[in-house]
User: Fold these one by one.
Assistant:
Number 1:
Amino acid sequence: MYNRVAVLAHEKFPDRSKTANGVIRYADYEVAAVLDRDCAGDRVADHLGGVRDAPVVESFADVPGDVDALVIGIAPIGGGFDESWRPDVRAAIEAGCDVISGLHYFLNDDEEFAALAAEHGVDLQDVRKPHDDLTVAQGRSDEVAADVVLTVGTDCSVGKMTATMEIVEAARDADIDACAIPTGQTGIMIEGWGNPVDRVVSDFTAGAVEEMILEKGDDHDLLVVEGQGSIIHPAYSAVTCGILHGAMADKLVLCHAAGREAIHGYEDTALPPIEEYVDLYGSLAAPVHETEVVAGALNTVDVDDDAAAEDAVAEFSEAIDAPATDLIRFGADDIVEAIR
């Protein structure tokens, strides 16, 4: 595990840097600086509340003090590598830092980076590269002793990873032995292990989730599986369905972003009414394993004040006929109680 890292989020911090934001909020290591050309000179606390502060700098050369690694904190649609990041990645390697990437573009396959890493004795960690032994699911996730909860969404980028981490933390505070099951690059960076299901061969998606549940399910009382995408998403629904069937979850937490009316990046595709998601997720899961939505996590980051956020949460709770909250704004106790 690293002690201090720098996080690359050029021109995306904080609104489009959910990997960076997740690492800043939940990872055990210290974030020494965030690299963002547009926000250079600001502080992290100017943009994110409730996190350890750090400077926002223009380049890796401006990071104060020594760091152990550079984390690429952006996960663009398609997971490509932006060539404007190359000077900072090169500078990190030349300074003896490991580079941690959650892109679909593998740094180890980049001739320049691979050669530099070998020369300077550093590791390039492509966390989105699955291991070679994955296979199809056997339908065994329901055999573990732990209760299994899955965060599901109305869309991508609504807060499923955040909900997963907040529920685990709150459950532990309530003396429940809880464990996060990371399925995406951000969760893997935070937890230090996991299977990147959106990079797995489609036949093995459910199996990749099942493998993790079988690994952890008899060592903990509660497993919270990090969901991905949405079951109605034009691009990512296959991953969502694979996780849903592989997890064989006992309970679901539905995540939504307040005010979201269309699929992010597919604005001509309107979101269905919230009520429909409850039936959709439950009916799709049922032939493999009966489950139900027991709580909701509403992301109210774009709602100005707490009173309006409380109204939005109440409306969301009524729509899903279950307790709901904004986990960051109001805490996760209600959701943990619903799960319990």
Number 2:
Amino acid sequence: MPAPDAEHIGARIAWYRKLRQKTQLELADLANCSYSTITKVEQGVRPATPGIVAAVARALSVQTTDLTGQPYLTELQQDELDGLIQPIRETLDLYDLGVDPDVAPRGVPALAAEADQLCALVRDGRLKDAARALPDLITEATTAAHTARTSEAWGVLASTYRTAYDVCTKLGYPDLCVVALDRLDWAAERASDPVLAGMRQYLRSLVYLRAGQYHMGRRLVTVGMATLAQGEPGRVRDVVTGQLHLGAAVLAARAGDGDTAAGHIAEAARAADATGEATRVHWLSFGPTNVATHRVSVLTEQCQYGEALEAAAGLTIPADWPASRVAAHLAEVARAQLWTGRTDQAEQTLQRAREVAPQQTRYQPMVRETIASLLSARRSTPGTLANLAHWVGI
């Protein structure tokens, strides 16, 4: 039975379901979804939400990326991004080799400035630029950390690992995401920084969110909160704590626990009132705007699409907000517009996301699934939609 070469998630679900010798009804029971949902998703007439993808992946004992089709190799090759992954993979394995005698590292302040610059590139959606520069910086920061053995040097190395996590997540390499987080934990321990360690648990919880393992994700948030409590009080700790609440809200919403999700959003809002916009604190983009966009996300995860669009309509995004976060929010809005029959608006919103952060938007599974569903809903394909479909590889 050949591997699936499909353009939408539903076709891949059908392929793996048949591989596991399950009927649609049996899969619906295992995934705790309705039979109608499974049939419509497989036919491509209903989009597969991240929650459906995660539930079906668990039921069929496959990874979510098997169903989303990641990584999207053809598009990665077209963008010349595929060749940048292996060097990142190799440098992530240097962590315990000590000082490289062939490397003469710059001072820690210079390395810290470049590490910040790469974080900024990711937030600006410039994944290719960040991925190209990252291996050399990891190599240099590794030797610098083993040479200086200071909290500052280990912190810089931890920052490079965080960028590796971000790049690999956005390009669809979950195996490398896990490796990068393990390296981040290793460096944070040597930096003796509870805030870094708590942030790592937040990022780790997102891995389990994408995999549909919500219970484990929520446990990691709890551990992260306890770790943060050991850090020095102040704005930095408050920012990471608030971001953990936002992650917990999405996890709870995906698990069907709306009350808990609302509670976490309220806690995050209180933290944001104190911190203000803090887009550069560990590059988490935390603040009132991020709380507001997560409120939209939580409503969308609970299938309250009309309410999500109302919340989005009342949101003013600052002009200098990170492009990556703007594009992610627009993708959520487009999904809600699709589900409420606003197909023209959904197309326009996706086009805006493409303009804001093209590299990130092209590789986001939710965007591809929304486009596939728009194609299915249309009797004819207008120019904008046809262009979007071709651009993402459909």
Number 3:
Amino acid sequence: MFYRSMTAMCLLATQASAEVPNVATDIAPVHSLVARVMQGVGEPALVMQQGASPHGYSLRPSEARILQNADLVVWIGEDLSPWLEDAIETVATGAHSLELLHSEGTHVHEFREEAVFGGHDDHDDHDDHDDHDDHDDHDDHDDHDHVENHDDKHEDHGHDDHDDHHDEHKDEHAGHDDHDRHNHDGADPHAWLDPENAIVWLNSIAEELSELDPANAEIYAMNAEVGATEIQAAGEEITTQLEPFHDARFVVFHDAYQYFEEAFGLEVTGSIQLSDAAAPSAARLSELHAEIKEHGISCVFAEPQFNDSLVKSVAPEGTNTGILDPLATDIPQGPALYTTWLRGLANSVTDCLG
């Protein structure tokens, strides 16, 4: 890895000067992946405040200017940030758009809507993560077919339908409906929690940047390779760290961790909220409380952006509580954020279950 890093530095030192693309990103983990690929060449910009909910966001003027000046926008996709799709079309009019959730090779799950999840019968399939073997044969993977056909679905609805859908979501949220259908009728967009996806995306980012900036293509490719090695090493460490907890069950605040569960063989019982944009119903809380009590589940996780009163409402006295943060809220931005955050998630699980 040291050799490859030095090679990238040498390439940078001998590279002809070129205008580096302005790159805008949506969330901190994605920003980190782009920063890793661009390291030594340039730095991407983060459109949203770090830790803010990506499901609904109002751009500040400075953030709108980032989009306006962007040559490339790298984001998870409309499934996570529906508002950003419109902003790219109306503000970032000259920018290329790279939707990572739709990148070839991305491993995608469907959303779970129930309070108490079913079993994870396919954990054995994810033993292949150590070898990164074709990402679970994506050519035959139903989820991959979903990704390839997803753009067709997007083309079927115009902006009028999109606005109506926003209004419907707003009404549901105001009424504290437990079904946030705006974001929960298909692909689960929290795909950055699977390190295999992050590795796939490093290559997608490098390819996109190379098209815009061919003078630095070798550096982007080398940085993506080094970044993949770093993520793979972190994944192997975490696999070993979490192996003793494969049979342990715990509850999360909202259903954002399916990819992390599958990647590392964990068993999550359920989630307090369906999403971070929809308050849970009394029935959902009651069902989860009964499940925790009946099965003696020892750990319930909150998230830093939300009041922990809901955690207390479902966790019987004596239950361990911890914090899981899917957005890397408190980690300094930069190339190292992704692996630092991934290890932090593993440490949180270990601390609560250990």
Number 4:
Amino acid sequence: MNPETHGTQWAIPCWFMRGGTSKGPFFRGSDLPAAVEARDSVLLAAMGSPDPRQIDGLGGAHPLTSKAGIVAPSTRTGVDLEFLFAQIQPSSTRVDTTANCGNMLAAVVPFAIESGLLEPGGDTATARVITLNTGLVAEITVPTPSDGQKRFVEYSGDARIDGVPGTAAPVEINFLDTAGSVCNSLLPTGNLRDTVDIRGLGAVDVTCIDNGMPLVIIQAAALERTGYESVDDLNRDTELKTKLEDLRISCGKLMGLGDVTDRNYPKMTLVSPPKNRGAINTRSFIPHVCHQSIGVLAAVTAATAAVLKGTVAHDIATFPDGTEPEVSVEHPSGEFTVKLGLDPANPAHVMKSALLRTARLVMAGNVMVPLSLRTPTDTATPPSSASQEHTQ
């Protein structure tokens, strides 16, 4: 680990990256403590948690800006990089490494090149990345032109994603097999839809699905909402959020996840008919705050539910036929297009999911944490060794 100190503070190399519609600090696995508890203490201190404003750290006082990534080279056959995603909540001491984040995943290859973990060899760099959180594997391609002396990550370009201002260079992500990333299968209850009781409403139909992110999908109309409400209105809707949390806890048990009270999943996704020529409209809760757009893997999972005949999403979705449909998922900030590869012999089997994101290096330097967090017995190891309890 980096031994540099500044008085009573420890300087840890850090690259602050935007990935998709999220952002946060990225670290090389070798720069952090090996022990999980010590590592998590460093992450909490770096982000400034627990504190609603995260005023003493890098966090942005919102779940979307309270995330971190840890990356290391991989020794696994056919895998180049290992990525451990960490979700930190502003007001909590919990560091959750049990679920993925497809937005932060978009920054992994740019970070690896910036930090010296990966050397590009051509005008584009493609790396196969495994997310240690769930074992999901993705091939990620970024542009790496040359300035005549060396290759660098190109961040400028014409790619545009809703939820991020301006344009940037494309980051192409091809998920190879995302079904059952956290749960035991694509449809963890074994059903395309289930009926669950909600206090004050009675029985409602939901679809419990996991194609990269465990979701509970419910039609907004079933909750006496339109599904077109603004993010601010939904975040102020305490009655709705109480019902969603009751539903989330019930469905977590149905999905084999146990008590999810303190977990960041399953995410709750309200769906309604599309308004802007998309396939389906969404409002995604992560899980207690309405997302300004929608997470990458939540979009993949919602798109998958839309194409599966018999789900609550399929009932109101509009999309093209075929074994490789492009599904436009509408969200509060615009839309997110997911290209799905379906098995012709079994349309319920999703073989791949492809999408486009963007990323940018915002800052490179050191983040300062209390020197007391560095223990002399720590020996640096990549996250694959330090965090095997999170892999599946």
